[in-house]
Sequence to fold (891 residues):
Amino acid sequence: MDTTIKNSNLKSEEYFINMGPQHPATHGVLRLLLTIDGEIIKKVEPDLGYIHRSIEKMCERDSYQQIVHLTDRMDYLSSHINNEAVCLTVEKALELEVPERVKVIRTIIGELTRIASHTLWWGVMGMDVGALTTYFYGFRDRELINDIFEETCGARLTMNYNIPGGLMFDIHPNFVKRTKDFIAHFKTKLPEYDTLLTGNVIFQKRMKGVGMLTKEDAISFGASGPVGRGSGYSCDVRKHHSYSAYDKVNFNEILKTEGDSFARYQVRIEEMWESMSIIEQLIDNIPEGDVQVATNAVIKLPKGEFYQKVETARGELGVYINSTGTKNPYRLKFRSPGFSNLSLLNHIAVGGKIGDLVASMATLDLVIPDIDR
Amino acid sequence: MNISLNITKTITELLSGFMSEGAANIGAMVTIALIYLAIFAVAGLYLVLLERKVAAWFQLRIGPNRVGPWGLLQTMADALKLVSKELTGTVKADKFLYNLAPYFVIVSSLMALSVFPFTQDFQAFDINIGIFFLIAISSLGVIGILLGGWASNNKFALIGAMRSGVQTISYELSVGLSLLTMVLITGSLQLSEIVEVQKNGWLIVQGHIPAVIAFMIYMIAGTAETNRAPFDMVEAESELGAGFHTEYSGMKFAYFFLAEFINMFIIAAIATTVFFGGWLSPFGITESIPWLGVFWFVGKTLVLVFLMMWFRWTFPRLRVDQLLTLEWKYLLPLNLLNIILMALIVWLNLTIQF
Amino acid sequence: MDLTKDFKTEFMTNEALQNLISSWISELEFTEESSEFLNITVKAEQLHQLMSQLKSNTETNFDYLFCLTGIDWGKELGVIYHLESTTHRHIIVVKVQTEDRENPTFDSVCDIWKTADFHEREVFDFFGIKFNNHPNLKRLFLTDEWEGFPLRKDYVDEINMVIK
Fold:
């Protein structure tokens, strides 16, 4: 777009605004430096670190049991899956085979976490495009999942339910019934999401063709989770590097080829249906057995490098442990999905309006502590 | 009821009993202004409460229920809090314009209230160019918003103010033209006259198809005029923080806030007067009791206010370019065609009269 | 979908990968010991050449850089690249290290994988490893005035670090 008006001494110039660290649309303490020409975004530069706790450094001094608890504080909306990632890595290093019961329970809670995370995302996503009511609909259903977690794990957000070698304790006797009740409830409520937001003409106008991301760019930027799958990039870790009980269930990897914000939106909505289907397949078939394998009080991993990826609600979380054979990791790296997804924000937002930036940022589903580990 | 409902005349006569005619006129004006100010400040607060209750109803919540019975005093308490709050401001703000802006907004919206006929003869100021006066006054408010956004010396506020300028200037056209469509039937701009005409049937019935189109355009444009969702580009909290009033606090913020709600009432009240027969009761059922007109007027207005709240709590926000596309490419051409259609209908005498 | 492409290029075992890659550059060290993936250690000056070949070669086609880790070996500083091919689904690990602790420098792989932009800035921020040809190499998490590189093993901060 021509920035100057021809044959006139009026001229326009670009200017900066600071979006964040306290801003309603940045969901936490993300700071974006925007270069704007009128309403049109010229450049988006994220400035991070407002909530960085250097978890990777802390991990180098902590034992493996302690590390699990730190991971809750990364992507707090998929805390169970984060815990699981570390436990799986440690179990892989120790060549520990956990009982089937543990695998199934981990999978069920992991999928409940995914639904909880997606409902919250759906709520705040609606708020970002100005539909304030979605927030309460999303939270209504998320509360029920939190209640299930509270009963079994004792916590609603930072669950700490996994330990290397299994689970901290068995599930609550009500767990199966309440989960089934929830699935029955949510099956009637999820269509409401479509009625309220998905079908809305204004919403579709806001989302379609906005924040375009091609498949090649998605792979190159390391996009994962619904962001990658909205661009037609098959990146579901549950399918490609199956873990826990995911190899025992049938589910579809949701792929959309449009690559716009609406595709990413649809992927998440349909993933909730898939998650419900996974839970339904497992909930009646939780095998009997122990919920943990005995490990040493002090876990020492053998010398070597171990890598495990899992699919959190936001995408691929990788845990890289470099062990020298002591009770602490020599180096531990979390490859967080949000970090890579954030790096493509500039790419998809440039050329759009401020409203488009907010809408496409909402479909990236960023959780800032996940980026600022 | 022996007291005449023509309040201006009543008060002037009362006052002229003990002062000169000129002083009595001025005294009457001041008294009426104070009465209106008091009534609508409180009414505005209750509109806020209504909005919150309606929002809660839409959002599976209870809403304010702690202060007073059923939370009825909640907004009073909020107003008290806002009055006692510190007035902050930016150091580099243009102080004079910054302080002036809220008054522009609140005064222009209160001024518009003076011309409404709440019931027969109950009208502070029966001017013969009523509709024109309303349109003119209601567009003054945007100056306050522009001033506020500019003088705050804040980029978010400035973007919000510029959006507001663009939006109000555009949608003013649709508001004006859709009301003009209806004036073709009434043949008068005077609000009392417009209501009088509707004794033969509300204008939305008299004008049938073009009137319904005009009403829909009016409601869309009216919602945009008041800067409410889905046209709240000006505040767009997820984009601009709080938009043009980012830097305002305390009572100055409250003026902006109150003005928004009074404007909503005004937009609904204009629609009531022009499309739905103003204070006239349906089928003339309470024609013999003129003061009940107030009930009908407020009732109809509140239904329309509820409609606007319904918009707000269900729709996502448009983007700024989509907003302008909607106005200039769809509403405006449709409106111009609609005027021609209405003119034809009036000319060929196809209106429905009872 | 291009079927011929799928047919010609498929999952390669670690052995096949090793045979292929060693034919490109002679001085590479391969190991599978203490890791589930094939590890390649490359000299800093050959890093960029190897990386672009790993990406562009149709048989390897490592188009997904899923993890980029900085590591401090006490004496050396290194970077570990985890690569995956989204078409063939094989995984490889490339390692590079340098003994220069004052001014450690590697070539940037930003031009090959865009995700490396942020990941390299993170490594620069915490390890002080510089990347040549990086478009925007400045601190990402920490402030510009921050002294030292916190994830190095010799980093000392008596106030903020709790050492057990």
Notes: Residues 1-84 of chain B form one domain. Chain B has two domains: 1-84, 87-347.
